[in-house]
Amino acid sequence: MDAKDAEDPDALAEFFERALDRIAGGYPRAFAEAADEHALRAENARFAGPSGELTRWMKRMPELPAERRRELGKRANELKQRLQQALSERIEGLQRAAREAELSGPHLDVSLPGRGQPIGRLHPLSQTRNELLRVFSAMGFDVADGPEVELHEYNFDRLGFPPDHPATDMQDTFFVDVAAGDANAGGAGVGAGDDGRASVLLRTHTSTVQIREMLRRKPPLAVVSAGATFRRDDDATHSPMFMQLEGFMVDEGVSFSQLKGVLTAFLRRIFGSDLPVRFRPSYFPFVEPGGEVDMGCTICRSYQGHDGSSCRVCKGSGWIEILGCGMVHPVVFEAVGYDPERYTGFAFGVGVDRITMLRHGISHVGLLYGNDPRFLEQF
Length: 379
Ligand code: PHE
What we know:
single chain, alpha+beta, BirA Bifunctional Protein, domain 2, 2 domains, seven-stranded mixed sheet, three-stranded antiparallel sheet, 12 helices, 18% strand, rod-shaped, binds phenylalanine
């Protein structure tokens, strides 16, 4: 017969008593076998929780015969207290054991260095570009920007490249297929090719910024601009995407000696005050006279008396070609609406990749575009 069904108060009292004995005999072992606090609390709930065995019995105390209620009630309350006491002792015991296990277990070495968060930094090309821009800013040049996707007209035509001139072969590039009149092509018909399409390309040099800035502003002006340029080249020292820095100055009476002074000061600022610099005549359609600048090889440093005869970078010559320059051609002034009788100017273009490679002794330009952290980490 189940206790719930006991109608007779005397029988209920007997069940009640037996239940107290059962619980009193059961909990010590149940508590002792609980492996952790969670299991222990579950065991405790089985006896003393809201629907635990003892709790359920105690709810029936009013049904006990009056003469036994007091005694049995007292025993039940005492048992409840013993359970509570045993529970907290066992919790303490479990916690003590856990602490002891932790103390006698493997060491937590708080002096071990943590796992560091790698800190990012600017790409070596960006570092060099920023430094070059700073040098020219300090000389009074403004910094300008120009788009990488450019009109054929600004990249070649207005710079005095005759149509289909062989010089454009030196700067073979990537053309962009844009319908004539596309907003990005600068308006309908601008630079339109024979097929009526705007002739748009990835700029082959930053000289495009000369045209853009001169169209936008009036002399006097001194401007530098750096950014990505593109050509169909790919070898140890040429990447199809590379970075140039362009500079130019236009005013009345700007002279070639000023060009020489600015470029010599610039190169010595970057590579050292004892750097030899020489100017050679060369051809670019947008300058007259045009020149190229060589500087002493900073890899073998033969100009400092080292033996550079077997240097692979300058091929034993002691010189490295570093930039193109010249006096702005009158056709360029005409193309931007400046009076070529009144104004003169100089312009130059320098490879930021090349300067970066020379500064750090990097042998292959591809490293600058490979994004290998083992390489980039070194700067
Ligand atoms: N734009 C030329 C080049 O990329 C360099 C240059 C710039 C030459 C300005 C003269 C004047 O080869």
